[in-house]
Design brief:
The chain is of the alpha/beta class. The protein folds into 2 domains: about 5-175, 3-Layer(aba) Sandwich (Rossmann fold); about 185-285 and about 295-405, CoaB-like (Rossmann fold, 3-Layer(aba) Sandwich). It has 13 helices and 19 strands. Helix 1 (about 15-25) crosses helix 8 (about 165-175) and helix 9 (about 210-220) packs across helix 13. It is globular, with a radius of gyration of 25 Å. Bound molecules: cytidine-5'-triphosphate. The site of cytidine-5'-triphosphate has 14 residues, from helix 11 and strand 16.
């Protein structure tokens, strides 16, 4: 993916721009930072240089490393220009076409989409001049993100805080993928582990981090889908804009999934759902360690994916995708699971490999469908998410085409 220019201007939120760089890099982008003199009062260019691994542009007239007119060269190289935080001053300059430094000149020179994330005091944000300038930027096709509400550095509570970095990154991704292959579609994704409570302080759980499911949710969002994310107990932040349903146990996950399945065009079960729960439910009081050994009796939970397969029957909607975490006979077991659970395809991975599976950002998998198997080599989970969503998209469009053909040809 391409290069994104991030303009950082002088607001207290400038430090958050570091997280925006990280988020854009996680989404596969290369980032070049441009800092105004005021921004450098808040964060040093070295910080951005270290994380972007590129020279930070701080001065329009610095002796260049090449003979190109840099703002013109960059203007045609970038895929998007993001200004975050954007002060009232920069918003005013952009709205009026003032070009007195590198960032403002770049804005006029580029034809790449522009995303602006304002950050300022509540009263400044509400001032008619700022309101009008933002409206002008909107008319120029600039995408405005936020600002958020809350405590401001100046002591006020209200609107003006820089939008969360994840929201800015999500806006950039949306802007770069406006066609939205999944626009108007609803995708239900489950992620994370489930915890089966033993007593008020203990539970039986598993090591799923939720990374794979979150990557799938983020990819589906960037394709324009409405995403319902049924999320077990995880420490990671869900992608901005997903409708998050927090659950704890397998039973809660089942209720949430079955409630949203009728609206779904696809259900992707990436969660590591507990296969067993504590018989009789959680004890009301804490178990004391008054015995040498402790025997727990566990009862099978409902297999949500199998229930979905049964519920769908011979219909083709929603597309059903399962995961299979295996330690041996990966493909054979995945094929059996696919048939038994009546799903479209299974993403099977060998969790005995250190770099695939739980708690890591990479995964290697085998995609098992009715036609056979496809090996997906070790890659970042976000890349794997893309392959899985490509597959879901292909199945959905094939089904739309098949339905249309049936309508055309009543025989
Ligand atoms: N799954 C589910 N409900 C359960 C257990 C699993 O919906 N109670 C889903 C998982 O989300 C995953 C798929 O089923 O998409 C496969 O889960 P996995 O644990 O690998 O296999 P199981 O079918 O549970 O079989 P086993 O544990 O015996 O390997």
């Amino acid at each position: 993916m391409g290069l994104i220019a991030l303009g950082v201007t002088g607001g207290i939120g400038a430090y958050k721009a570091v997280e925006i760089v990280r988020g854009l890099q996680d989404a596969g982008h290369d980032v070049v930072a441009i800092m105004t003199p005021a921004a450098r009062q808040f964060v040093g260019p070295v910080t951005f240089e270290a994380i972007t691994r590129r020279r930070v542009i701080t001065d329009q007239f610095a002796r260049g490393t090449n003979a190109d007119i840099e703002h013109i060269a960059l203007a045609s190289d970038i895929e998007a220009l993001v200004v975050a935080p954007a002060t009232a001053n920069i918003i005013g300059k952009l709205a009026h076409g003032i070009a007195d430094d590198f960032l403002t000149t770049l804005y006029l020179a580029t034809r790449a989409p522009v995303v602006v994330a304002p950050a300022m005091n509540t009263l400044m944000f509400a001032h008619d001049a700022v309101v009008r300038n933002l409206a002008t930027l909107g008319e120029h096709g600039v995408h405005i993100v936020g600002p958020g509400e809350g405590y401001l550095a100046c002591g006020w509570i209200g609107k003006g805080r820089l939008a969360e970095p994840a929201a800015v990154v999500a806006a950039v991704r949306r802007v770069l993928r406006p066609a939205g292959d999944l626009m108007g579609r609803c995708v239900v994704v489950t992620a994370g582990p489930t915890y089966e409570d033993l007593d008020p302080v203990r539970y039986v759980g598993n090591r799923s981090s939720g990374r794979m499911g979150l990557a799938i949710a983020a990819d589906a969002m960037s394709r324009g889908a409405r995403v319902v994310l049924v999320l077990g107990p995880v420490g990671l932040e869900p992608p901005y804009g997903a409708e998050v349903v927090r659950v704890r146990s397998a039973a809660e996950m089942r209720t949430a999934v079955m409630q949203h399945a009728p609206d779904a065009d696809a259900v992707i079960m990436a969660a590591a759902v507990a296969d067993y729960t504590v018989s009789g439910g959680a004890r009301r009081e804490k178990l004391a360690k008054d015995q040498e050994t402790l025997t727990l009796t566990l009862t099978r939970t409902t297999d949500i994916l199998a229930e979905l397969g049964l519920w769908r029957g011979d219909r083709t909607r929603p597309v059903l995708v399962g995961f299979a975490a295996e330690t041996h006979d990966v493909v054979t077991r995945a094929k059996m699971k696919r048939e038994a659970k009546r799903v479209d395809f299974i993403v099977a991975n060998d969790v005995s490999r250190a770099e695939a599976g739980f708690e890591v950002d990479t995964n290697a998998a085998t995609l098992v469908d009715a036609a056979g198997t496809i090996d997906l080599p070790l890659q970042p989970k976000r890349e794997l998410a893309r392959v899985i969503l490509d597959r879901v998209e292909a199945l959905l469009s094939a089904r739309v085409a098949a339905t249309a053909a049936n309508v055309d040809d009543p025989s």
